[in-house]
């Protein structure tokens, strides 16, 4: 069994062409020898078959899809949106699941060394966006599909590099995979739903121009570069259509269309590049607009108004309690970078800095300061695009916020807009077609690169590095299949059994039962990938004033090893203070108990005390 499963999961070699390598001969002569260029293709049909035959994976996925179809008024997942609904009709009553495809280049060696670029690899990963949310965040549910040298793609072209993957996707769409479990026996088909990636990666594999200083840098519309730099609203008349796209491809004039070549992914049956390519908020906002905005705001308040110094801000950054976000604590900032309108932080660090920037220095900024509105608008945009569930009306709100934000940036910074500001104008359309943008970002896919980088660093051999990394990647996946489970939903830290009659009586009254098998008090608990511990803030409910009801975790109880009960200190929400973009709260001397599954939101929040003595909670989406 082990041997068959292992062989079915290892990739296949695909020959893409030949290249000339230098070779020193025995007689000290030098010659160029032709060498075959190869890539590693992983048969997705075997990967998906073994994955969905893991215990409860398919059953949980189908139940989650059915639940999404009931809640059609709230956008949560890609399967609820217009693009996928049209594709489902083509399959009738056949069960079909969507596939997300991600392509990106990464360096397995020293990116700053003299040999950088030689072993730069291109990887294609796939994921299933309709599996339950707590499974989507795990790297185990992101699968390697193709691994190649980036230089080979440049030399031989997209058509040759991606041909075996396109054939595999067409097989999954037409033939599908036979799944046999205790709960289900039958064929499930898969169809390419969305291509995701950063702007450069998506443009390079879909045939659009890779230079964002070109005449037409946008793949959604045909707005000229000069208009993008001063744009305050989107022109729907410039949105690319299928007819216009085909004309531009036939003309072949890059300078007048922004299209280098026909999209090779149109060979995947049913795919449309104008509807099925996502937007990446990680690169657009966290590594783009957010950095430009905060660099301008900090420079403005430090060097122009001089209301605080950079040293004061850095001291606040270092000493601030980030709570659940302490793993992505921002680094100190340097004036040299700010003057270049840039901030050198990772995407997760930038997320934390934007989220808590109001609490960091908001008390030093005068009330009703017009420039501060730029930060408030950025914060509102970030809240919407990182939300996992959205009402349809949020799309129109987002469009308005982006227009106001870009207007303010032009007005106060006196800078021209970069293309990433323009891309935000298309977010509302992408949400309607493909669902919440946080489901399309590159954050988890790029984290998958780390596994290959670790494997590459443990071996000094770079000969056929693609095969080496593909085998190691598939060995790890094979280990998952042999276990037959994706792991426990509940993990707990050090705990002690409750024997106090007072505590047992208190819990029994809350649970309204006479007895239970076991009751433990845990220092921390991790539920479906989310960690909870004392002093974290939970969102319990929404009150009559449409303000969230919060509770501060005091104790965590685990009953019968499956039921989680939080004992929380009750707090009163006074008002949403927009200047800090946080909720002001007041402590109450009362305890409240709540089941984990009855929480209004399962995302823990952070609590902060400001210099004025007031306490604030920053809500995470």
- Strand percentage: 15-25%
**How many DSSP E strands?**
20
State mean pLDDT (0 to 100 scale): 90
| Span between termini | 44 Å
Oligomer: single chain
What general outline do the C-alpha atoms trace? globular
- In order across it, which strands form the biggest sheet? 1-2-6-5-4-8-7
| Rg, alpha carbons | 26 Å
Low-confidence stretches: 1-8
Level of helix content?
A: 25-40%
Main sheet specs: 7 strands, mixed
Number of helices: 22
Structural class: alpha+beta
List the helices and strands and how they pair.
Elements lengths: L1 H8 L2 E13 L5 E12 L2 H9 L4 H14 L3 E2 L6 H10 L4 E12 L12 E8 L5 H4 L5 E8 H7 L1 H17 L2 E4 L4 E12 L2 H8 L18 H4 L13 H10 L2 H4 L23 H24 L5 H10 L15 H5 L7 H15 L10 H14 L4 E2 L2 H20 L5 H5 L3 H8 L8 H15 L7 H19 L6 E3 L2 E3 L3 H11 L7 E4 L1 E4 L2 E4 L3 E6 L5 E12 L3 E15 L4 E14 L5 E9 L5 E4 L3
Parallel strand pairs: 4-8
Antiparallel strand pairs: 1-2, 2-6, 3-9, 4-5, 5-6, 7-8, 10-13, 11-12, 12-16, 13-14, 15-16, 15-19, 16-17, 17-18, 18-20, 19-20
Helix pairs in contact: 1-21, 6-7, 12-15, 12-16, 16-17, 17-19, 20-21
Short overview:
This protein is an alpha+beta fold.
């Amino acid at each position: 069994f082990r041997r068959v499963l292992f062989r079915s999961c290892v990739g296949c070699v695909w020959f893409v062409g030949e290249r000339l390598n230098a070779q020193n001969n025995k007689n000290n002569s030098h010659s160029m020898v032709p060498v075959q260029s190869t890539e590693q293709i992983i048969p997705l049909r075997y990967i998906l078959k073994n994955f969905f035959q893991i215990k409860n994976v398919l059953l949980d996925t189908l139940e989650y899809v059915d639940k999404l179809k009931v809640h059609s008024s709230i956008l949560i997942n890609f399967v609820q949106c217009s693009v996928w609904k049209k594709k489902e009709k083509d399959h009738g009553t056949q069960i079909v699941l969507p596939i997300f495809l991600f392509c990106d280049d990464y360096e397995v060696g020293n990116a700053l060394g003299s040999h950088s670029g030689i072993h730069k690899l291109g990887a294609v990963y796939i994921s299933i966006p309709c599996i339950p949310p707590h499974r989507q965040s795990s790297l185990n549910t992101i699968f390697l599909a193709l691994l190649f040298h980036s230089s080979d793609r440049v030399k031989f072209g997209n058509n040759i590099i991606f041909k075996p993957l396109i054939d595999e996707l067409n097989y999954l769409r037409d033939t599908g995979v036979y799944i046999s479990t205790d709960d289900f026996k039958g064929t499930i088909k898969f169809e390419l739903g969305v291509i995701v990636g950063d702007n450069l990666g998506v443009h390079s594999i879909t045939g659009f121009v890779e230079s964002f200083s070109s005449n037409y840098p946008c793949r959604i519309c045909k707005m000229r570069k000069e208009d993008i730099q001063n744009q305050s609203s989107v022109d729907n008349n410039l949105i690319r259509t299928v007819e216009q796209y085909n004309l531009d491809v036939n003309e072949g004039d890059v300078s007048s269309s922004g299209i280098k070549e026909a999209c090779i992914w149109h060979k995947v049956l049913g795919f449309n590049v104008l509807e099925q390519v996502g937007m990446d908020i990680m690169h657009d906002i966290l590594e783009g607009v957010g950095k430009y905005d905060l660099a301008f705001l900090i420079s403005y308040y430090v060097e122009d108004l001089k209301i605080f110094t950079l040293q004061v801000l850095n001291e606040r950054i270092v000493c601030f309690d980030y709570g659940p976000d302490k793993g992505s604590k921002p680094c100190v900032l340097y004036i040299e970078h700010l003057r270049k309108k840039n901030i050198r932080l990772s995407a997760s660090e930038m997320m934390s800095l934007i989220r808590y920037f109001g609490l960091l220095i908001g008390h030093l900024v005068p009330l009703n300061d017009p420039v501060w509105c730029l930060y408030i608008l950025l914060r509102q945009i970030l809240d919407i695009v990182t939300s996992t569930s959205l009402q349809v009306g949020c799309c129109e709100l987002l469009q308005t916020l982006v227009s106001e934000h870009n207007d303010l940036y032009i007005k106060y910074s006196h800078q021209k807009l970069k293309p990433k500001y323009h891309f935000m104008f298309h977010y509302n359309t992408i949400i309607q077609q493909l669902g919440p943008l946080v489901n399309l970002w590159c954050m988890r896919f790029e984290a998958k690169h780390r596994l290959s980088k670790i494997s590459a660093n443990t071996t000094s051999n770079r000969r056929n590095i693609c095969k080496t990394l593909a085998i190691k990647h598939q060995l790890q996946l094979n280990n998952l299949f042999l276990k037959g489970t994706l792991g426990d939903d509940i993990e707990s830290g050090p705990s002690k059994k409750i024997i106090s009659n007072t505590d047992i009586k208190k819990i029994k009254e809350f649970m309204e039962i006479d007895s239970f098998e076991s009751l433990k008090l845990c220092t921390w608990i991790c539920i479906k990938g989310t960690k909870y511990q004392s002093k974290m803030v939970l969102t319990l409910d929404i009150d009559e004033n449409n303000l969230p009801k919060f509770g501060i975790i005091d104790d965590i109880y685990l009953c019968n090893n499956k039921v989680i009960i939080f004992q929380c200190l009750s707090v009163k929400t006074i008002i949403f203070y927009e200047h800090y973009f946080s909720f002001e709260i007041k402590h109450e001397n009362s305890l409240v108990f709540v089941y984990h599954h009855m929480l209004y939101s399962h995302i823990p929040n952070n609590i902060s005390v400001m210099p004025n003595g007031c306490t604030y909670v920053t809500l995470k989406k």
